[in-house]
Amino acid sequence: MKLAAILIDTARELLYRKTLLVYFGIVTLTLLVFAVALQTDVAGGAIASLRIFGVQGHGAPSGMTFGGEGGDAGLSADAFVRGMQLAVAFVLYPLGILLSVLATASLVPRMLEKGVIDLLLSKPVSRPALFLSRYLGGVAVATVNLVYLVGGLGLILGLKTGIWNGGFLASGLLMALYFACLLGFSVLVGLLSRSTTVSIMVVGVIYFVSLFVRLPHQNTDWPMLITSPAWRLGTQALIEALYHGLPQSYDFGQMAARLILRQGGVAWGTAFNSALSGAGALALATFLFARRDF
Fold it and tell me: Which pTM does this prediction carry?
């Protein structure tokens, strides 16, 4: 019950700081625009006509396919829905993660402010439980909003086309897991720096570094460009350490796409490795919080 009260207090804090309201409002506005802008007519399982913001379009020309589907009838409704959901995954998922980071980056720095930390530490709750409850509150807020976004878009497309894709919702939950990994690093940086801005910046760096190191990780020939054996070994070790020690952003995006297209499931090894890296950062942050004097 005490932990539940702290989780509720975390949500109330985000609500008080207008962060949660802004996040919820942006998602709601996105859903409303999507619902109003997109108008489709489906006949025989194919897109007969398409209107976006009142601009008339038509189903795909004969023979155009998406994901191996289509045919003489034009673009199938199923292929159209998956294409729209895939576009959402590549455009709105990164924005959703960014909004989640912005919404939760202040949780730890705000907690460490004089007066706030004194009040929290006076509660009959252990320090690890207190810190983890803040983390879980951030994860819960982000997950609810991501599910709201994905569920809302899936519902709109389903009602307009009659096509329902459970893989789309699964991809949203997968991105919630990815955010949980990032939040582990965010709370660690927030504890060490006591700065919301620094937390946001470091998480952004982690995101882009994880994208960058995947290329040399996948390309086994690149070390040959380095002539010095010592530099080659050190650079390889650094690349592999960053690739396996950070949440694997690109791989999560690819897994989400495969779930939407129904071309495979989750690569559990990749998901576990990223979850382990986030859990490691969270464990270190919890340990430091438990031992620090305030």
Answer: 0.84
